[in-house]
Amino acid sequence: MTAWCGTGLALDYGDAAPGFSLDGPDGKTVSLSDFKGKVVILKLATTWCPTCKQQSAEIEALVPFLNENQVTVIDVFLQDTQEMVDEYLAEKTVPENYISLLDDGPARTAYNVYLIPRLLIIDREQKVRRDGSLLEKESLKTLLEAALGPKEG
Fold first, then answer.
1. By 3-state DSSP, what share of the chain in percent is helix, strand and coil, each rounded to 5?
2. Which residues contact residue 144 at a Cβ distance below 8 angstroms, ignoring those fewer than 6 apart?
3. What phi, psi does 75 have (nearest 5°)?
């Protein structure tokens, strides 16, 4: 993988999100399919990429919105150690439904990642709503609102 900013071969709107399974920090296997029925932000990045850090800040600015709407954020870290991730996350505010995963190849392969950061919005049916690079908080919120659909009540 090359640590350039941008995206690899992007998925199209409506494509099925490729599945993957990785071990979480607690040793339990986490699969993307575990989150069917939830709107997911999937970020493929590293702790040391400046643009990846910028994307994290844009997501962090939306934590109240993410919590209110129970959006799940999955951070898949490429080329990092658990210690690097722990140190990185110690400085962050993450949403309630957050998981960090270390990728040893399955996610990078499934998503054909060779450029970072890569940010996807995946809807409740595990369809891709957005696949690309850096996204500012306003645009991210708009896309999430569309994926969440109309509020009930």
1. 30, 25, 45
2. 39, 41, 62, 65, 66, 69, 71, 121
3. -100, 115
CATH of the domain at 93: 3.40.30.10
3-state SS assignment for residue 63 = helix
- When pLDDT is cut at 50, 70 and 90, the band that residue 13 belongs to is very high
* Residue 143 belongs to some domain of the structure: no
Report the predicted TM-score, pTM, of the whole model to 2 decimal places.
0.91
* Domains identified in the chain, total number: 1
User: Strand, helix or coil at 130?
Assistant: strand
pLDDT in tens, 116-144: 999 999 999 999 999 999 999 999 999 99
Domain range for 105: 37-135
Range 122-149 burial, b when 16+ CB lie within 10 A, else e: bbeebebbbbebbbeeeebbebbeebbe
* pLDDT bucket at 25, cuts 50 / 70 / 90: confident
**∠ CA(124), CA(130), CA(133), 5° rounding?**
135
pLDDT digits (tens, 9 = 90+) for 65-93: 999 999 999 999 999 999 999 999 998 99
